[in-house]
Design a protein that fits this description.
The complex is a heterodimer of chains A (199) and B (244). In chain A, 29% of the residues lie in helices and 25% in strands. Chain A is α/β, with parallel strands linked by helices and 199 residues long. Chain B is mainly α and 244 residues long. The chains are: A alpha/beta (199), B mainly alpha (244). Chain B: Pfam families: RhoGAP.
Chain lengths: 199, 244
């Protein structure tokens, strides 16, 4: 089936355990779970307004532990915008974004017209901070992308993150609010936890 | 007729469960030109040691898994990444034949175990078996699922079977400490999927198929004995064989 043409696809990348799923779930469902479950790959969709009409915002939450290279290429080539997440409590996690950024650059050719947000998550865990905001900003400047610190746990800057990201898209005029409706009507696609009766 | 005869096993899988299995391709003899001792080396060329319970298992797996078993309480073991420069250095040492695990951080060693599995020239679970494994996992009855998976494990070359038995036995021990390390069998299966059952093409990259791959690994982590050679827990192949 061909992809719906007016879908806007956002892909979330980052090392294991930095809070990619938590950010996405906080945004899509408004909840925070304190569980510990690695992601295979999940896609969430949400209706947003786009060029005076509506379109589907599709958010792909990827796995943090070694994504299969072909799968990573596929996610990047399908993505319109990217969120690169690290945890402010782990210097290693910002290091791990470098190869992913390089891969995006290689596949897209240039990142100039592509919305990318570097995100330092877990901003509430100040006692464990290893990466200063300044360092995140510097990295974002080097990558010519936007930067933000967030906390999925305390719901700090989460909605703003998605709003800013959409605002970076110059080819379309997108916003989270839909006239006359509250944003937040969403459905989860294809997720099949613990069931295997599809075949 | 021998119980282990692969054509009999295939027939049973077909008749009992409707699972047809691709022929395993004959492996070409591989030469290791890099001089590497651990990573990217075919199973049969790796230094291995004999463990009565499992058979011949690569020394690297035995050393690294034994090392990690003593540190199995580490939160997010196999999920959290170690330090990339340290992992690189450790890997170079191991590939040069140096034993240097004892002082390494557990997360680095865990990352190397995953790399080791990913980089085997022939994957531990051969691609020809993937479709059958996934089909077996979708069988409705638990008993049928187990029997079919066990029959499929009998089709593996002995060297793969020993290593998989050892690895899943180890992972099941790690998962038993999940109250400390938070890595349940399902979590471990998720992070090992790209290493042990990577999707070969785009159609296999759909969420449903990926999650099925995770479930196969979860079943193996919860039941490592499926790779065992103990005839007493082999499924009932024998009575059916006597019909012929």
């Amino acid at each position: 089936m061909p992809e719906q043409s007016n879908d806007y696809r956002v892909v979330v990348f980052g090392a294991g355990g930095v809070g990619k799923s938590s950010l996405v779930l906080r945004f899509v469902k408004g909840t925070f779970r304190d569980t510990y479950i690695p992601t295979v790959e999940d896609t969430y969709t949400q209706v947003i307004s786009c060029d005076k009409s509506v379109c589907t915002l599709q958010i792909t939450d990827t796995t943090g532990s070694h994504q299969f290279p072909a799968m990573q290429r596929l996610s990047i080539s399908k993505g319109h915008a990217f969120i690169l997440v690290y945890s402010i409590t782990s210097r290693q996690s910002i290091e791990e974004l470098k190869p992913i950024y390089q891969q995006i650059l290689a596949i897209k050719g240039s990142v100039e017209s592509i919305p990318i947000m570097l995100v330092g998550n877990k901003s509430d865990e100040t006692a464990q901070r290893e990466v200063e905001s300044k360092e995140g900003e510097a990295q974002a400047t080097a990558w010519k992308c936007a930067f933000m610190e967030t906390s999925a746990k305390t719901n700090f800057n989460v909605k703003e993150l998605f709003q800013e990201l959409l605002a970076l898209e110059k080819k379309r005029d997108m916003s989270l609010s839909i006239d006359g409706k509250r944003w937040g009507k969403q459905k989860r696609t294809d997720k099949l936890k613990g069931k295997c009766s599809v075949m | 007729m021998k119980v282990t005869d692969s054509s009999v096993i295939r027939l049973h899988l077909q008749v009992l469960y409707g699972i047809s299995v691709k022929r395993l391709e004959k492996r070409k003899e591989r030469l290791v030109l890099s001089g590497a001792k651990v990573f990217g080396v075919p199973l049969e060329s790796l230094p291995r040691q004999y463990l009565p319970e499992f058979g011949l298992v690569p020394c690297f797996l035995v050393d690294s898994c034994s090392f990690l078993l003593e540190r199995a309480g580490s939160v997010g073991l196999f999920r959290k990444s170690g330090s990339l420069p340290r992992i690189k250095a450790l890997r170079a040492k191991l590939n040069g034949g140096e034993g240097c695990l004892s002082t390494a951080p557990p997360y680095d060693v865990a990352a190397l175990i995953k790399q080791f599995c990913r980089e085997l020239p022939e994957p531990l679970l051969p691609c020809e078996l993937h479709a059958a494994l996934l089909k077996a996992q979708t069988l409705p009855g638990l008993q049928d699922r187990m029997s079919a998976l066990q029959l499929l494990s009998c089709l593996l070359p002995a060297r793969n079977c020993s290593s998989l038995h050892y690895l899943f036995h180890f992972l099941s021990k790690v998962s038993q400490r999940c109250s400390e390390n938070l890595m349940t069998s399902s979590n471990l299966a998720t992070v090992f999927m790209p290493c042990l059952l990577p999707p070969p093409n785009k159609t296999e990259m759909s969420q449903v198929r990926l999650e099925l791959r995770v479930l196969v690994l979860q079943t193996f982590i919860e039941n490592p004995h499926l790779f065992g050679n103990d005839p007493s827990c082999k499924p009932s192949v024998q009575p059916a064989c006597s019909d012929h």
